[in-house]
């Protein structure tokens, strides 16, 4: 970490130029000849990335940022807060500490947090920022986390791991064994130091593939922010052998809702033609793959085995979007010309042979407005269009 970045005139420059075009800034003559210009420009770019994602850091003076890519890859504060709600006890060790967002929030629930980071520069940056933020319960341990576990010879209530994908496996199927650290290979070693392990993975990881590589999985939390799945959280408990639960968590500005079921739940869905209300699952629910269990859990009917849309007469609470169905149209030329062609609406396709772009082009539909048009297939295998209003 370069302490020159903390000089008053440089910090003022970073604040004043946050939000300005980085490409243009990079071409400026360096007004601070005693420091590399690239370092200053990186601080401006990284701080801009932190504005919405990391407001606590953004609004704190003299924060030092790592490379911009580290900000892009780190958890948001919202996701970190959710993780922290899943742990309790006296101590936690993070084997892949990074910029330290998760540990900052872990430390609000856990008295002693150990932040391990292989990158010595990043470890120093995190330690500096923790001090500024008043996170005094966090101990920074620079160096290899495996060696740190052996050296510290302690037992923690929780262990947290965010493995990073190796750069040499591009184009291959995403597996945990292809990440650093190699958690499947090290798992039994890790359980010597903690009975409870949380592993964060990217949404790209297939749940069945993850379960095939790991053991002792107690729960999997699929976390979506504003209907985009951001991360999978694997909760492991030493010697746990029962069927894990799957929790799909939908977090947005208005509320947080979740849907919980057991992995491999074999309950059968009920089916019906469209009724008064339509339900579209949140992306976290879609990632869970528990589509029949959704029908059973919320007591709503599926429109078709492959449509993943649901319906009911009575409105129910739901982990996803809810609509009132105002019109049900057969997908026929005359109906399209009368009700669809040339209008402004939000188009969604589910189990339908055309893409949104194809439909918009064919029927000259303008995107936007208050009408939501779902092009789908009903249980009688008929192509239909549901014109809806969002609740």
Q: Number of DSSP strands?
A: 18
CA radius of gyration is: 25 Å
User: How much β-strand is present in the residues?
Assistant: 25-35%
Give helix % range.
Answer: 25-40%
Structural class: alpha/beta
Shape, please?
globular
Query: What's the main sheet like?
Result: 9 strands, mixed
Number of structural units classed as domains: 3
The name of the CATH superfamily of the largest domain reads Vaccinia Virus protein VP39
Given the structure, what is the number of helices? 15
Trace the largest sheet across and list its strands: 3-2-1-4-7-9-8-10-11
Poorly predicted runs are: none
CATH architecture label of the largest domain: 3-Layer(aba) Sandwich
Distance between the termini: 50 Å
CATH class of the largest domain: Alpha Beta
Task: Determine the mean pLDDT.
Answer: 94
CATH T-level topology of the largest domain = Rossmann fold
GO molecular function: methyltransferase activity
Keywords: Methyltransferase, Transferase
GO biological process, one term: methylation
InterPro entries: PG_1098_Fer, SAM-dependent_MTases_sf, Thump-like
């Amino acid at each position: 970490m370069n302490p020159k970045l903390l000089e008053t005139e440089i910090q003022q420059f970073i604040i004043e130029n946050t939000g300005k075009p980085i490409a243009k800034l990079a071409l400026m003559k360096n007004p601070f000849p005693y420091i590399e210009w690239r370092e200053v420009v990186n601080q401006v770019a990284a701080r801009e990335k932190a504005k919405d994602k990391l407001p606590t850091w953004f609004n704190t003076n003299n924060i030092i940022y790592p490379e911009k890519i580290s900000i892009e890859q780190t958890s948001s504060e919202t996701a970190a807060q959710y993780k922290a709600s899943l742990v309790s006890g006296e101590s936690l060790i993070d084997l892949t500490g990074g910029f330290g967002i998760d540990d900052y929030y872990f430390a609000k629930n856990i008295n002693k947090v150990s932040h391990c980071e292989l990158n010595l520069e990043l470890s120093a940056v995190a330690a500096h920022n923790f001090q500024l933020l008043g996170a005094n319960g966090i101990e920074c341990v620079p160096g290899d986390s495996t060696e740190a576990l052996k050296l510290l010879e302690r037992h923690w209530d929780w262990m947290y791991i965010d493995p990073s994908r190796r750069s040499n496996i591009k184009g291959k199927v995403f597996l945990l064994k292809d990440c650093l650290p190699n958690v499947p290979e090290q798992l039994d070693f890790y359980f010597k130091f903690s009975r409870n392990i949380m592993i964060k993975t990217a949404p790209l990881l297939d749940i069945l593939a993850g379960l095939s590589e790991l053991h002792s999985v107690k729960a999997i939390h699929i976390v979506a922010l504003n209907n985009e799945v951001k991360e999978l959280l694997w909760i492991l408990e030493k010697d746990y052998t029962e069927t894990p639960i799957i929790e799909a968590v939908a977090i947005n500005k208005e509320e947080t809702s979740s849907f919980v079921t057991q992995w491999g739940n074999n309950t059968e869905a009920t089916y019906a033609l469209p009724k008064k209300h339509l339900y579209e699952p949140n992306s976290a629910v879609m990632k869970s793959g528990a589509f029949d269990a959704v029908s059973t859990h919320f007591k709503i009917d599926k429109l078709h085995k492959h449509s993943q849309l649901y319906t009911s007469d009575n409105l129910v609470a739901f982990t996803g979007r809810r609509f009132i169905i105002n019109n049900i149209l057969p997908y026929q030329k005359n109906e399209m010309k009368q009700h669809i062609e040339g209008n402004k609406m939000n188009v969604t396709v589910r189990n339908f042979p055309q893409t949104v772009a194809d439909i918009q082009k064919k029927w000259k539909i303008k995107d936007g407005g208050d009408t939501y048009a779902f092009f789908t297939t009903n249980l009688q295998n008929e192509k239909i269009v549901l014109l809806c209003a969002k609740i």
